[in-house]
Design brief:
alpha+beta; Dipeptide-binding Protein, domain 3; globular
């Protein structure tokens, strides 16, 4: 090939790369197939301890560093038939649904402290400690593990033999096996998870920075600055119970934190990372979809977002006000303008796709300003005396495009002609502290499934930890909702569950304690030779399934 021809080809490649953003193609460094670098804007909120961790990234790390008795088949709908063995090889339930026996896997050891054996003693210790079942473990005001309410479900855990353990339940809890897959049900190492102390980040000491063990990876590097993760290094655990099946497939995974979605996008385009996950904007995702040099992974999911009201103070303690706001919101608008139709409007606090979901909020319509005007008029608000809504949102990428969302909600509400919206954006830790203090009149919050069942969503409108004052201001409504929810979760009869959940969702739409906004699946971007990413309704990220293979075209 002549020199001028070669030069022309190089020029063309450079032009194509600059247009598509495929800069990493110009960096032909040999691939280290034993290392994967992942970028994210997310960070552990508090701890990598199943007893208190209650954020997406914390649970992601627990999933990589620990194991539960059972797991969910990747890519499934997470139904009872999709539960697969993990640290338990088999199980059975009593006819009345109040007793579950698990047969445990033998020959499993922790990698540290003399290879401590996993057995029924570890199971009992983990649940007694994390859930405070015996009264001498961790105590959390909202109930440990944080907010899930294990104590209302599990009576006790009893050792039958070294490798057999029994759970006595307080109620015949239909999604019990799904609950056992949640990261809050993962085993902890007694030597690193004291009975009465939460495990927190310890600078320079990765092992004492988490409570887990028995997972596909060990934590070999962990750097946090100012309460935000900077770098996490996961190294293959040679003692992993499923190592013989070839997991994890990659020896080391490094997770790098980026301060903004733009920085995350730039790192992906420059080839500095192999995978980008949480949070990229919709425009960035669409740009990657048009880029033939990357893969875009997208799947169904049950991530939701909703609007909350502080109901201890006027005017948001008035049902008519909340109903008027519900009618003024235009869910299709935010899904189209902000999320480019990658997300879907949501009309129930229970995510679409789950059994027993009923879109009860459909009755308000979208941008139904006539209804809004009529409802607000009953409380003296009109074009000359507009309702002022102080709307708060987080600004640090904990949720996708929060500022853009808030701007659209402001436009939609103000288009009614009887509402004025004042926006307030603050970083996540402050936002969460304001939630705890009950100081935000109206705010946007989100939810990911702890376990895949309507039970894990139906309680949100009266959840005490949201601190909205609903139960204080509407004791009858709170009791009615709690009763329906309790009745729905206390039976394994599907017909009875549907009746109760439908009634619950209708009541929630009547009272509008919270207003559902949208639902989404998860989206990740990877280099073309990355495989094994699974995006399913659990929203779980499974590091151990990823592997390198022949480069693929864009798409899953």
């Amino acid at each position: 090939m002549k020199r001028n021809q070669l030069l022309a080809i190089v020029v063309i490649i450079v032009i194509v790369a600059s247009v598509t953003g495929a800069y990493f193609l110009l960096r032909p460094a040999p691939r280290n197939t034993g290392l994967l670098v992942m970028g994210t804007t997310d960070s552990v909120e508090i701890t990598i301890d199943p007893a208190l961790s209650y954020d997406y990234f914390g649970w992601e790390l627990i999933g990589a560093l620990g194991s539960a008795l059972v797991d969910i088949r990747p890519g499934s709908q997470a139904a009872a038939s999709d539960i697969i063995p993990a640290l338990a090889t088999s199980w059975n339930a009593s006819v009345d649904g109040l007793i579950y026996d698990f047969n445990l896997r033998t020959g499993v050891v922790f990698a540290e402290t003399g290879h401590l054996k996993f057995n029924s003693t570890i199971v009992k210790y983990s649940f007694d400690r994390n859930c405070n079942l015996t009264g001498d473990g961790l105590y959390e005001p909202d109930g440990a593990p944080a907010n899930i309410g294990y104590q209302d479900i599990i009576e006790n855990v009893t050792i039958l033999s070294e490798y057999r353990v029994r759970f006595y339940l307080k109620i015949p809890f239909a999604p019990f096996l799904q609950l056992m897959t949640a990261q809050s049900s993962f085993m902890v190492h007694p030597d690193y998870a004291p009975k009465n102390a939460v495990v927190n980040y310890t600078a320079g000491d990765p092992r004492h920075s988490h409570a887990c063990g028995l997972g596909p990876y060990t934590l070999t590097k962990y750097v946090r600055v100012g309460g935000t993760d900077q770098e996490v290094r996961l190294t293959k655990n040679p003692y992993y119970w499923n190592a013989s099946a070839g997991y994890p497939k990659i020896n080391e995974t490094v997770i790098v934190h980026y301060a903004t979605d733009s920085a995350l996008q730039g790192a992906m385009l420059a080839g500095e990372i192999d995978v980008a996950f949480r949070q990229l904007s919709a425009d960035q995702v669409l740009a990657f979809k048009a880029n033939p040099f990357v893969r875009v992974w997208q799947g169904i999911g049950a991530q939701i977002q909703y609007m909350c009201f502080q109901q201890r103070a006027y005017p948001f303690n008035e049902t008519a006000i909340r109903r008027g706001i519900a009618a003024a919101l235009n869910r299709p608008n935010v899904c189209h303008t902000v999320f480019k139709d990658l997300f879907n409007p949501l009309y129930s606090i229970i995510a679409a796709g789950l059994a027993f979901q009923k879109p009860s909020f459909n009755k308000y319509g979208s941008a139904n300003y006539t209804y809004t005007i009529n409802q607000l008029a009953t409380k003296g608000y009109n074009a000359g005396n507009k309702l002022v809504v102080d709307l708060w949102y987080e600004t640090t990428g904990h949720y996708p495009q929060s500022a853009e969302q808030a701007t659209v909600y402001k436009q939609d509400l103000e288009a009614s002609g009887v509402i004025t919206v004042v926006l307030h954006g603050i970083e996540w830790s402050t936002f969460r502290s304001y939630r705890n203090a009950g100081t935000m009149p109206v705010f946007i919050y989100g939810w990911y499934p702890d376990y895949v069942d309507a039970d894990d969503y139906g309680f949100l409108p009266f959840a005490s930890w949201l601190n909205m004052g609903y139960n204080d201001s509407y004791p009858a409504g709170g009791v009615a909702q709690a009763l329906l929810w309790d009745q729905a979760r206390s039976t394994t009869n599907a017909t009875e569950r549907q009746i109760k959940y439908y009634a619950l969702q209708d009541l929630q739409a009547d009272e509008c304690s919270v207003i559902p906004l949208w639902q989404s699946g998860s989206i990740a971007i990877s280099k073309p030779d990355v495989h094994g990413i699974v995006m399913d309704i659990t929203a779980n990220w499974r590091h151990w399934l990823l592997y390198y293979g022949a480069a693929a075209m864009s798409g899953p």
